[in-house]
Amino acid sequence: MTLIDRTETYSSRYRGDIKLTGIIYTHRITDNRMSGSVCKNLDMFGRLCGEKAAGRVRLITTMWDKVKDRHLADSRVSQLETNFWKPLIDEGARHERFKNSSKSAWDIVGSLMGEGEAVLIQEELVDVERRLNETTAGKALYTQFQRLLHEQKETIKQLQEEAKAQRDPELVRQLEAEQRRLEAELQKAWEEMDKLKIPFLRRIALLFSKKPQSRKIELNLPANQ
Description:
It is built from nine helices and three strands. The protein has helices spanning 3-15, 36-49, 70-84, 86-90, 102-110, 120-127, 136-165, 169-196, 200-207, and strands spanning 23-28, 57-62, 94-97. It has a three-stranded parallel sheet with strand order 1-2-3, with no helix packed on it.
C-alpha cells in the first residue's frame, strides 16, 4: 500500500469520526542492524503518527522464537528503547514482545482497547486542509525522491563509463540494458517528485495557515539515512 492509499484511508475514516484506537509497528529482533530502509520507514512512521497519537502506539519486537543469543537480543532491545525508539516512548508509546502465540497477540491488541486518537496526517489533511505534498510525511517523501534521483544519476553515469571501457559486446549489451532500466526508473521518480513539489506562493501561504495540534516526532536516526 502506498502513502497515497494510506492517506486516503486515514482521511476518509477521520471524516467519518473514526479514530485509530491502536497503531502497531513491528521490528524483527533478529535484525543485527538498523538498515537504511528500516530507518526510512521508522522516520515516516513518526511523521504519520505525531506526538498526540503516540500513546496509542505499540512498538512490537517479533521473531523471539528464532533468537539464539538471548543476551544479544536483550541488548538490541535496550538500544532500540534508549536510542531509536526513545522519542516515541517519551511521548507515550510502549514496547512489547510478540511471543509468536495467540495469547501474546491478543494481549497486545487488548492493551490498545479504548478511545482512539487522530494521527498527525489526519489532522493535516482534514482539520487544516493541507494537500498530501504539504503534509509532514509528504515533505519527507519529496526529500527521499531527491536523494533517489541523485543516486540514480550517479549510477547511470558509472554505467555509461563502464560500457565505454569494455570491449566485450555481451557485457556492453548488459550494461546498456541496466542503464535503460535505471533511466526508466529515473523518469518515474521525476514524475512522482514533480507531484510533490509545492509552488513558491503556496509555501508562503502555508506559513500563515492554520497549524495542526499535533507535531511530528523527531527520531534518533543516522543522518545519512
